[in-house]
Write a structure and sequence with these properties.
CATH superfamily: AhpD-like
Number of strands: 0
Helix content: 55-70%
Number of domains: 1
Distance between the termini: 16 Å
CATH topology: AhpD-like
Largest sheet: none
CATH architecture: Up-down Bundle
Amino acid sequence: MIERLDYISINGSAIASMAKAKNQMESIDKRLRALVELRISQINGCVYCVDLHAMQARATGETQQRLDCLTVWQECSFFNQNERAAFAWAEAITLLSEGGAPKKLFDALKTHFTDQQIVDLTLIIAQMNAWNRLAVSFGHQPNPRS
């Protein structure tokens, strides 16, 4: 359900182009991608995307406990060093105006990810922020599930 403007119907070709770009970022594991997208959506307050990416994460085998604790990932031991580096980078890029893209976070990425993966992860983060901004701006809400 979209409460304000149906941006998908109004400019479907642009939305399709954005969706197609998703297929170009395949070096990141689907489970990690879903967690990163979920974390970004939590930060941005996007109810539609939080619902969608939590569902996608569960489909990859993610546990409910880890999903429940994602908002406090820094405070618990459920997440490995690769995930922690990805979450820290995602938060920094999502909150870019608060602190930029610190060298220490980039250096941490370099110890866990290839250059291709770092580029793909950063593209995923940028695209997720764009999707969140569309969904929040136009009031995109998830449909209730039973």
